[in-house]
Amino acid sequence: MALILGSALALFAGVTPARAANLASQPDTQVAIFMVPLTLLLLVLLFEAARFVRRGTLPAQISERPARSLRWARDRQGH
C-alpha cells in the first residue's frame, strides 16, 4: 500500500525514472539515504531506554537456575 501511495505521489510530483536516477547519484542523497534510517533507529533506541528508566524497573528476567551437569564422560562409557 505504501509503495503504491509513494509511486503515485512521485508521479504527481513529476519525478521520472531518469530524474530519480540523477538524484540518486548525488552524494548528498546517498548520505541522506544512509543516515535517515540510522538516525530513526537511534531515536527509537533512546526512546525505549528512556521508557525503562522512567518506569524504574527492568522487564521480567529469567530466574537463576542451577547449571545442569551433562556427565558426558560417564554416559559414553557404555550407558
Automatic annotation (TrEMBL):
Keyword vocabulary terms for this entry: Membrane, Signal, Transmembrane, Transmembrane helix
Protein name (record): Uncharacterized protein
Residues that span the membrane, as ranges: 30-47
Endpoints of the signal sequence: 1-20
